[in-house]
Amino acid sequence: MLVVGGGIAGLALGIALRRIGRTVELVELNSAWNVYGVGIILQANALRALRQLGLSDACVAVGYPYTVSLHHEEDGQLQATRHKPSLLDEGLPASCGILRPALHDLLREAALSAGVQVRLGITVTTIVDEPDTAHVSFSDGSEGRYALVVGADGIRSHVRSLRFPEAQPPRFTGQGCWRFTLPRAAEVKSAVMYHGRHARLAGLVPVSQDQMYLLLLSEEPGNPRLAEADLPRLLNDRLRHFGGLIPAAAMQMPAPKDIIYRPLETQLVSAPWHRGRVVLAGDAAHATTPHMAQGASMALEDAVVLADCLDAASTVEQALQRYADRRFERCRRVVEASVQVGRWQMQPEAGADPIALLREVATELMRPA
Ligand SMILES: Cc1cc2nc3c(=O)[nH]c(=O)nc-3n(C[C@H](O)[C@H](O)[C@H](O)COP(=O)(O)OP(=O)(O)OC[C@H]3O[C@@H](n4cnc5c(N)ncnc54)[C@H](O)[C@@H]3O)c2cc1C
């Protein structure tokens, strides 16, 4: 089988496929095969998927597990301490902050040890259906025939553009996310959030015993292109009304290159996610905003479920249909709820209850994928 993309979905799938005895080749376009150095939150369902790959304990050991989130007014006054939906009965914390490079290293080492054959700096150029196989040409001139090709190549998936040319491009939601890493403040033992004016949400999330990251969601009308050199000034400006622990964190802002700004974009490809012997996974099929911190969870669950379906079904076609049946509604729910919460942040509506919606969906996600 061929996996295109060596990110969270592709690596997790490589490991999951090796665990059911399949031969796996993986191609990754980025020859350095690195990821940017800020944190993400792994929710309990992500940790459950990682446990199925044998990696949850390692993630919790290098990351920072926690069970509550603290919510404050913009000025720093505590509003509420919220217990997050969790899988404590399965021995998993509700959430675990982790540096993306640390997660990447764990997945990469596990994939390589499991025998995934990796080629870097190349991608697919064409995919032609043949009876029971896909004939693939690569950008280095090589070719191969595979029982299945998985497009795990992220939100701007090239595989998706080859096989689902009618799929809508990713859609900008109106918000952007700013992040940088800094030493963990002793008070930050869980996600510490501040709800600000102007549709802004700031937070501090521990990612290890020594580090945390600052995040800010902000409305960014017109999806501006921001020059790297301007990022500290722009971020400082957006943080200036926040109190609590935010001013001290802002004082530790790093060099511009270490401030990661991303416009928020979504994508949801209609099911089924396969055509012939090509199937999509992770952000290539469904990309969401960070409001629920579920993008990586969905990618990890895709990997575990796709391998499970391939193992159980008698034909590849049956397996791929079953995969979409098990995944589409769950991913749609995450994408739509996340977009809705962002919309409410930008345009408050009477009676809207974003906390209740987030809680409802997060609770649903505690059911097995
Ligand atoms: C601002 C922000 C904050 C987020 N925070 C969280 C969070 O807290 N928790 C969470 O769960 N999720 C979070 N996410 C979402 C999460 O990062 C993604 O859902 C996750 O990375 C998806 O994994 P993936 O493997 O599908 O895609 P990616 O991680 O993007 O990996 C795709 C891989 O494919 C490679 N590739 C690309 N094109 C090609 C090609 N043509 N050929 C070969 N290889 C290719 C890329 O180099 C990359 O290695 C966040 C996202 C954003 C934007």
General description of the model:
- This protein starts with a strand and ends in a 5-residue tail after the last helix.
- The chain is built from 10 helices and 20 strands.
- The model has no long low-confidence stretch (mean pLDDT 97).
- It has helices at residues 8-19, 44-52, 56-62, 100-114, 158-163, 231-239, 246-250, 295-312, 316-346, 354-364; strands spanning 2-4, 25-28, 39-43, 64-66, 68-73, 78-83, 95-99, 117-120, 124-130, 133-138, 143-146, 149-151, 171-183, 191-195, 201-206, 211-219, 260-268, 274-275, 278-280, 286-287.
- The strands form 4 sheets. It has an 8-stranded mixed β-sheet, sandwiched between helices.
- By secondary structure, it is an alpha+beta fold.
- The protein is 33% helix and 28% strand.
- Bound molecules: flavin-adenine dinucleotide.
- The site of flavin-adenine dinucleotide has 31 residues, from helix 1, strand 2, strand 3 and helix 8.
- Residues 4-10, 27-30, 40-41, 46, 123, 152-154, 158, 177, 262, 282-284, 290, 293-297, 299 line the site of flavin-adenine dinucleotide.
